[in-house]
Specification:
Radius of gyration: 22 Å
CATH class: Mainly Beta
Strand order of the largest sheet: 1-30-29-28
Number of strands: 30
Number of helices: 1
Structural class: mainly beta
CATH superfamily: TolB, C-terminal domain
Number of domains: 1
CATH topology: Neuraminidase
Length: about 375
Amino acid sequence: MITRKRIIRGGLALLLLLLVVAGLFAWRLSRQINIRALRGEGEVANLQLPDGFAATVFASGLDGPRFMAVAPDGTLVVAERLANQIVALRDEDGDGSADSRQIIADNLNRPHSVVYHEGAWYVGVPNGVVKLVDADGDGSAETRATIIDDLPSSGAHTTRTVEFLPDGRMVVSIGSSCNVCDEEDARRAAIVVYDDAQGSGERLFATGLRNAVGLAIEPRTGTLWASNNGRDLMGDDTPPETIYQVNDGAHYGWPRCHSGNIIDPDMGTAGDCNDVVAPIVEMQAHSAPLGLTFYDGDSFPADYQGDLFIAFHGSWNRSEPTGYKIVRLGFADGNPAAQVEDFATGWLDSSTGQAAGRPVDVVVGGDGALYVSDDKGGLIYRIAAVR
């Protein structure tokens, strides 16, 4: 017979067990989290660059600038996520700083990405894609249409990146809802593809990408590339962050395999890395690679032509902060280097662990300079070659 005393003892034992488990989890978490770099207000960073380059502030006072695009006339267009708008920044006198700021569209839902395609802007929002059209050319979109509105938008990763393949098909990256888990919606931790810009014929393009925030088209081959954020709570240096050349129909491992050869300790079993596509390059864990772009301008030195630049948003889940910079993956005869190298640093003060800003995206401007968005500082930097 179950007595009241036995019930109480059992309840206390269960409570003690839960406290122990919670304590162990908190201890494990505390060993891998350092949010010093996230604290405080952003400010202009003193950037360090290779010889022959200089950085200036192109625009300031933005509210959560995320991904950027360049209009046909060379205007820089930015998804201002916290302001719920898309803005155009114009350098009308050519002095390297924005002279005017115009809202293309407002009252959007946390826009993260923006891309120009056949006379319209396509904006990635948590649940889909919005199309903006400026029919009269006055700089503001008179019409907007929801192209996709049923993407899963809850959970940990809510940014949606839109890109167009050379054949006109539209792709959208959708991050996982969790650190590591089995997803109910197959579109999570994946890239979906549509037959056209109207969003018809949705299907999975690539799977097993935990959070492929950045998408870019390699100009020489027309192939799709992606940055991918690895899982947390496996230590300071595992698993690595990765860059992939994304192939139609390929599976990249998550949640059971990471970086092509690391079996997940919680979800994986022997053999889960078999037939998983390996990354092009591995990078420091917890760097949080976001935007990436291939340099196709004409103002950087010849040995930078075709190289891949990647923005590291920076860690929150590492005992010592890392990331907070722009790195470069060099190419020689179309072949990538074995590892990335620092290109622009200075956002992170390694002596204090404080960060002046958090790079989000990097694009090549119409003038051949690199433009870098910083959502902590509310800034856009311009990095130009100097002679």
